[in-house]
Amino acid sequence: MFYEINVKKAISRTKIPVSYYTINPYIGCTVGCRYCFAQFIGQFKNTTGKWGKDVYIKKNLIEVLDREIGKTPYRNFFISTNCDAYQHIEKKYELTRNILKRLISYDFPIFIMTKSNLILRDIDLLKLSKKVYIMITVTTDNDDVRKIFEPGANSIPERIELIEKLNGQNIPTDAFIGPALPMNSKRLANRLVNLVGKVHIDDLNYKYRVRDLYKKYKLEKWLNEESFTRIKNDFSEVFGKDRIS
Ligand code: SF4
User: Fold this and answer.
1) Which listed residue, of 15, 70, 72, 118, carries a Cα 20 to 30 Å from 152's Cα?
2) 91, 118 in Cβ contact below 8 A?
């Protein structure tokens, strides 16, 4: 279910190292990743919604942003920390698109991390600024694994194609391998090495929340520390130490 709500504030301070401010256009995310921390951290935990199904749309967000933006000191923005800014309903509501318009017109540096090829809709805006930094999340090379953990997301081939399309428009991207899910890491690293600038790798946090799912699909060995170390090593070998973090 989708619920339209009004908010009093658009811009929030974030403690995430890559950015100073964040704007979350939605509370909840239709991508519905099973491992997603945003279902129990942040505003969603104060709702009665079901993760992946229920989303609260900040209907008056742009109006509030227009009041705040002129008074905001020059810092970088992350759109968005607690939901995918290009989740399915963005197609209808265009909140992310309107946030982008505002931030670009004020020349703020912007960071966007997404799994969604809906970002291609906004290529016209993305090309207007040299200060937009995009990361596409690719958590595995195996689409069967993707279907288990990221049921509402674009497929892995679609995400690779998305990176290629952004490259074709001279919009450089990095890849976020996080959380690193079961994968053939050598194969994925070799697939990405000529497509992205850098890769950023992260382990699965809050493993206890998805342990049963790993068990159900007989993937438990991937929860071991050694599996993550092997993935990191494979990517390091292919990317070299200057292109990995
Ligand atoms: S796309 Fe991102 S925010 Fe949305 S459910 Fe998946 S991990 Fe969470």
Assistant:
1) 15
2) yes
Q: Please, which residues have CB within 8 angstroms of residue 164's CB and are 6 or more apart in sequence?
A: 195
Q: Within this chain, do residues 86 and 180 fall inside the same structural domain, yes or no? A: no
DSSP 52: T
Is residue 15 located within the same domain as residue 103? yes
Ligand 1: centre distance to CA 69 (Å):
26
CA of 209 to the centre of ligand 1 (A): 15
Q: Are residues 11 and 130 in the same domain?
A: yes
Q: How far is the C-alpha of 74 from the C-alpha of 21, rounded, in Å?
A: 10
What is the number of structural domains in the chain? 2
Q: Which residues line the pocket of ligand 1, CB cutoff 6 A?
A: 29, 31-33, 36, 38, 83-84, 115
Token pair of 227, please?
């599996």
Segments forming the whole domain that contains residue 197:
138-245
Q: Both 238 and 127 in a single domain?
A: no
Ligand 1 centroid vs 41 CA: distance in angstroms?
12
φ, ψ (nearest 5 deg) of residue 136: -100, 130
Residue 35 Cα to ligand 1 middle (Å): 8
Each residue's pLDDT tens digit in the chain (245 positions)? 999 999 999 999 998 888 999 999 999 999 999 999 999 988 999 999 999 999 999 999 999 999 999 999 999 999 999 999 999 999 999 999 999 999 999 999 999 999 999 999 999 999 999 999 999 999 999 999 999 999 999 999 999 999 999 999 999 999 999 999 999 999 999 999 999 999 999 999 999 999 999 999 999 999 999 999 999 999 999 999 999 99
